[in-house]
Amino acid sequence: MEPIIIVLIILVVLVFIALIKTVQVIPQASAAIVERFGRYTRTLNAGLNIVVPFIDTIRNRIDLREQVVPFPPQPVITQDNLVVNIDTVIYYQVTDARAATYEVASYIQAIEQLTVTTLRNIIGGMDLERTLTSREEINAALRGVLDEATGKWGIRVNRVELKAIEPPTSIQDSMEKQMRADRDKRAAILQAEGVRQSEILRAEGEKQSAILRAEGEARAAALRAEGEAQAIRTVFESIHAGDPDQKLLSYQYLQMLPKIAEGDANKLWIVPSEIGDALKGLSGAFGNLGGLGGAPAPAVPPARERTEKPTID
């Protein structure tokens, strides 16, 4: 009985292994290459697949998702004989698992070498300045060459990016000095433009201020003259309305005489000839007010007199 049990156990194990080899589960976005006796038979897609155990074998499992592969810096010589190190990043996707398995031994290594040679051809026709400023052009040219060359390998290059372009150290120092000089130049130009604009605005402000000040002074003078004219007009109208006589005018005339002599600097003042007429008018007025025969006021000759104001030492 024991040999029979051993045989049964061996058969169960063989059946279990056969089932494992028969049923193949392929994940989503993946593919598997099946070979029968070393020859390509078919490609297994995602899902549950049945193969012949011990006859069909899985050669390779390939990820069909888009892959990102960075390549190390590569020294490239520009048209003006300068060596620059360029880092590249390739975005590719396997579209044909069979071609990617049998058309090329290692498509990753093949893409890397093709990228290096193509990049050297492209950069070799550009100078350093154009290389630093033409990334999009380089990317487009590199992608076109890679996509055409890798098509027969079942590879589609979706995108190529230049991650870094590093010129020599001496060139970097020169470029930094040039950029610093350009920044200093732009700063000086902007500062000069600011000073110029400030001076223009200040001149415009002073001009407008002078115009407004002149207009204000002219307006004030006009209003002052208009006020004085109105005051004189009002005084004259009041005088004419009051109908003053000669006696009142003579009295007002005498009241203005002390104001004429005011001031320490007035050493000499002139008595006008009209003061005699004013005194005559006042004497007549006081004579009429006296009533009972008061003495008449002394007469003053009508001639112009010059009287010197005494000084006190």
What's a quick, concise take on this entry?
With 313 residues, the protein is α+β, with helices and mostly antiparallel strands. It contains 8 helices and 10 strands. It has a 3-stranded antiparallel beta sheet with strand order 3-2-5. A 3-stranded antiparallel beta sheet has the order 6-7-8. Strands 1-4 form a two-stranded antiparallel ribbon.
Characteristics:
single chain, 313 residues, alpha+beta, three-stranded antiparallel sheet, 8 helices, rod-shaped, disordered C terminus
What can you see in these coordinates?
The protein contains eight helices and ten strands. It is of the alpha+beta class and 313 residues long. It starts with a helix and ends in a 5-residue tail after the last strand.
